[in-house]
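Format notes (please read before filing issues)

Several people have asked whether sequences and structure tokens are stored in separate files. They are not. Every record keeps both together, in the order shown below: the sequence lines, then the token lines. Line labels are part of the format and must not be stripped during preprocessing.
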Amino acid sequence: MLHPGQVRRLVLCASYPGNGTAVPPSRQAINALTSNDPQQVMADLFPAGQTVAQNTYLAAISSYPAAPAAPANTVTAQGNAVDQWWAGSDPAGQQAAKIAVPTLIADSMPRSSYRWLDAGVPTPGHGPDPAPCPRGCVI
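Then the structure lines:
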């Protein structure tokens, strides 16, 4: 954060601080997501019983113009960056421990998994439990 004095509260959504304590996805999930097979990708992102969520997602992304696939070297570089982030070897990941303002870290995990860093942040209980949402669901 370049100007910490200008921040009173912080919400990190779909975030993981990259400090080396992550449990990476299974190799099966990683393989599915990197397979270039749309059926495998959708099956991993949307578990059984999430047809409505999957169809909503597909309708939303189909409204965007088609984009070319990322170059292979970009995909490789992104994979390496993610591996470093999970392992905690990216120095930026260690900065989360220095956050000194009330902070909510939330993602698509069940509410019981939220980590509250300060009692000044309201407790969970507003809105639906995002547990049934696909990865990357915004709450």
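For reference, the curators noted about this record: Residues 72-87 form the longest helix (16 residues). The mean pLDDT is 75.
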